[in-house]
Amino acid sequence: MKKIMLGLFIAFGFSACSLSDGNNYVDCGANTAVNFTGFPFYCNYSVKSLPNNPAAVVIGSEEKMNEYFTKHANSCPVASDPNIDFTKEYLVGLFAGAKPTSGYSIKITSIVENNCEIVVNYYEKAPTAGETVTPSTTYPSDFVLIPKTTKGMIFNKTNENADNMIIGSFRNQCTGADCQKFYQINDYNTLKFLNVGANQYDFGQYKYTPTIKRGEYTLLLKSVPAEILALKGQTKTYGSPDSADQGGIYFELRQGASVTKVYIDNNDTADQSAEIKLFKKTIQEKITSLK
What we know:
Largest sheet: 7 strands, mixed
Low-confidence stretches: 1-18
Number of strands: 19
Mean pLDDT: 89
Order of helices and strands: EEEEEEHEEEEEEEEEEHHEEEH
């Protein structure tokens, strides 16, 4: 397996380096998962100098954070926590470099460590067939927080299916800490979004914690009713979710350029077929299992 060695660039301050092929990988024993948290960087920060070529950065102090990034007022509908405790964690960022249009992305999928290094697995996505793009230069990036470490890092580019689904249960009048439960299910991990706001379903603005488990998207896709698959990018509501504080189920399916969104009343309603009711139960049980 070919990997990209960035061991010399792990920083107690700031570091940046190319994502081009580097040294050969050296086996350092069995890998174990590293817990990390997705960080909605763009809500509160901007990059002072965007890299034209693929690069990785590791930030280990507030001083270096301020040197290379500009902090601004929260630009997301839901306030995100911009604070990083550099006594306990590092900010790791990946940049895909300059791209000619929108529709490109780069994503960290999992992080593992062994006896001598940390391996950050990631993939890149290009625009899919039929996807509407904006013909202007973009700079895709992804940022996560990891526990503070003295180990060097390797960045390993993988091939992943970018299709995913988001499932959620909501009760907008509920004031508890865990009233809105939302998860993104991929074929490489499951993300738990933190502190989702009522009716605020732009999930890029939330921190998240991952569970690494393969094949979950493909498995759950088999249970999606044909009538939902036939929507192909449309939005549909079944019943009147949460109209009487009864809550509802949210389902979002992203396949290539198509984004389908469905809201389902927790109460069984006349417009819910037997297949929709069964699918609603499947989502409810899946969310319960992911708590």
